[in-house]
Amino acid sequence: MLKPLAPFPDVNHPAALDAYGLAPVIDGHNDLAWTARETAAYSVENLEKDSIFQTDIDKLGRGGVGAQFWSVYTPCDRTEAEAVQYTLEQIDFVYRLIERYPDTFEFARTGDDVRRIWSEGKVASLLGAEGGHSIGSSLGVLRMMARLGLRYMTLTHNDNTGWADSATDTRVHGGLTDFGREIVREMNRLGVLVDLSHVSVETMRDAVETSSAPVIFSHSSCSQLCGHPRNVPDDVMRLLAANGGVIMIAFVPMFLSAEYNEWFKGGRVGPRPAMTVDHLADHVEHARDVAGIDHIGLGSDYDGFDDFPDGMQDVSGFAVLIDRLAERGWPAEDLAKLMGNNVLRVLDETSVASMSSLS
User: Fold this and answer.
1) Could you tell me if 196 and 188 are in contact, meaning their C-beta atoms sit under 8 angstroms apart?
2) Which member of 228, 232, 308, 332 has the greatest number of CB atoms within 10 A?
3) Integer Cα distance of 104 and 108 in angstroms
């Protein structure tokens, strides 16, 4: 067994304990950088334990998180120049976080980086830009962010870009434009994963068709179980499997339960509907049944929302889910694929371009 984070993840089932020795939990999406901007002026202090955030070093250890895609995000209502600035500021936050806590975090670009850093008991830290507006419609900015270590970019956030339709905006492009396809091809060349969370179904299909590399959903759930527009229909999950990609199931309650989503849209009036780890486990198992065990992962969205399933209100909640799936009969090898091995395969298969080719 490789050296885990300390303290050891809060799990009890033997299969869960074994799984934590086989793979790191790789979380596809965490919004600490944006939340730190909004509430702490980008401070990286006081993150050891009992922080004001859903994410801190102690909570990561109790959840057994061995690798984190840190989201670098800009609201859609900013100008293109502001979007680039905000994204760079959050990349800077991640770099400063790693510098402040070098015994806990280390920057990663490749699957081998993640394996080595995890084996040393640290959290491998990767960058993921949330929203294609982050590059200001510039391939040059995309290339420079790739130089800084960007490993995925979500093609849209809640609003359309000039070249791709969002899941939660009025469709204007019918999917990807020609420039959108050019961006996907350049991302493939650079080794920047194409992330299809937040995009319209038409954009999902266009991107899978265009991409020569595996794509991901960094934080989405299953349309069949909850019809939220941010979720992924079964036919797209099958396309994803054929593409070799991974859907990383989100923990966001609106994506997990139609009843919760209606309550949320109605202003949270009345008692909160039940929201348990089993709602999340149902989505994980549905994605496994449709896309296959080799094409699923986890993308929490911690520090991006204020409510999560019971007992999972912070990043220690990964252990709750892994224990529950083990109780449902998942063997350690399958848990390890879900936790991180599937994403490691995708990182291995999407080589990071050499610095000299980033021109």
Assistant:
1) no
2) 232
3) 13
Residue with tokens 């994605």: 287
Element housing 47 (H / E):
none
Q: Which residues are catalytic?
A: 29, 31, 130, 157, 198, 219, 301
Q: φ and ψ at 250, to 5 degrees?
A: -85, 155
Amino acid at 320: V
CA within 13 Å, CB half, 236:
26
Q: Given a cut of 50, is residue 115 above it in pLDDT?
A: yes
| 51 closest CA partner among 99, 97, 118 | 97
- Per-residue pLDDT of 185-215, as tens digits, reads 999 999 999 999 999 999 999 999 999 999 9
Q: Which two tokens stand for residue 54?
A: 């859903």
CB atoms within 10 A of CB 234: 15
Greatest alpha-carbon span in the chain? 58
Distance (Å, rounded) from C-alpha 201 to C-alpha 25? 28
Q: What's the token pair of residue 223?
A: 């349309």
